[in-house]
Design a protein that fits this description.
alpha+beta, globular, Phosphorylase Kinase, domain 1, five-stranded antiparallel sheet, Aminoglycoside 3'-phosphotransferase, Chain: A, domain 2, 11 helices, 2 domains
């Protein structure tokens, strides 16, 4: 069991009036150490220097979107942006649990439809907020042709040599087809969540509704299709269709949605090999070796 006292000591050094009576580690944070304090607050400590930069951006973003979107999001109350060893953000805990696939599968068709509608409305509102001028100064621009070309270069150099031959051929062809089509990069950039999947969507079983969206550390200005790819990967195509009802020109997003979904495992493997995280590397490479 991980020793959590170094984290609680850091919190109390900065906020000595916060009495910490109970603390539990939340296991599904890959880029952060995530603590539940007093069953009242969530604290996130970035594990990597990139995470520290992302935390600063996320805090700025969360302040801008408060009151502008349809679902609850973290409201930072405890903030320390020191060096990596002591940086954290804490916020009041949002009720609910991650909307794992089994929870969705066991819900009635009416509840599934209502959940899809909630998430679709959230994405529609979030993506429209890209017109806020301040966001352009605090968020990175992602999903450009140059960025995906660079990602492909890293995958080709670091991952493909370790794959079986047919997987190598398919991935190279898959990326080249996508990168060589200019219309894939002709979209209007939006404010995207960037990690819109099961662990960051909270479900309240008492109300059978979405209670909140968490972890905006991967938020950026980019392709709206990326967030729908997260839904596709988590819950399947029928759910995405339900969530997309009323979303402008949604059918145009499908080729990009499917491409981004196909990259998620590769991105996990790439993260693993670049950050010495063998579990992430092996999980991402499992279908290619």
């Amino acid at each position: 069991m991980e020793n959590l006292s170094p984290y609680t000591q850091v919190i109390q050094q900065v906020y000595p009036d916060l009495a910490i009576n109970a603390v539990d580690a939340i296991s599904h944070g890959r880029n952060n150490t995530v603590l539940d304090v007093n069953d009242q607050f969530i604290f996130r400590f970035p594990k990597y220097i990139e995470g520290l930069h992302a935390l600063k951006q996320e805090i700025t973003l969360l302040k801008y979107i408060q009151g502008r979107i349809s679902l609850a999001t973290p409201e930072p109350e405890f903030i320390c942006l020191a060096d990596l060893s002591g940086a954290f953000m804490g916020y009041p805990k949002i009720p609910g649990e991650p909307l794992w696939n089994n929870l969705l599968s066991n819900a009635s068709s009416t509840t599934q439809g209502n959940l899809a509608k909630q998430l679709g409305e959230f994405l529609s509102t979030l993506h429209r907020l890209s017109s806020i001028t301040e966001l352009a100064t605090c968020l990175p621009r992602n999903d450009t042709a140059s960025q995906w070309t660079e990602i492909f270069r890293r995958i080709r150099t670091k991952l493909i040599p370790h794959m079986r031959p047919d997987a190598q051929t398919w991935i190279i062809s898959h990326f080249e087809r996508f990168l060589n089509e200019p219309k894939h990069f002709a979209y209007k950039p939006v404010l995207k969540h960037g990690d819109f999947g099961t662990s960051n969507i909270l479900f309240d079983q008492t109300t059978n509704s979405i209670s909140g969206i968490i972890d905006f550390s991967n938020a950026s200005l980019g392709d709206p299709a990326y967030d729908f790819a997260g839904l596709l990967s988590s819950y399947g195509e029928n759910f995405v269709y339900q969530a997309s009802c009323g979303y402008p020109n949604f059918e145009d997003l499908w080729p990009r949605i499917r491409f981004y979904k196909s990259t998620f495992a590769l991105l996990e493997a790439l993260f693993g090999i670049e950050n010495s995280d063998m579990l992430a590397y092996e999980s991402g490479m499992a279908n290619y070796m």
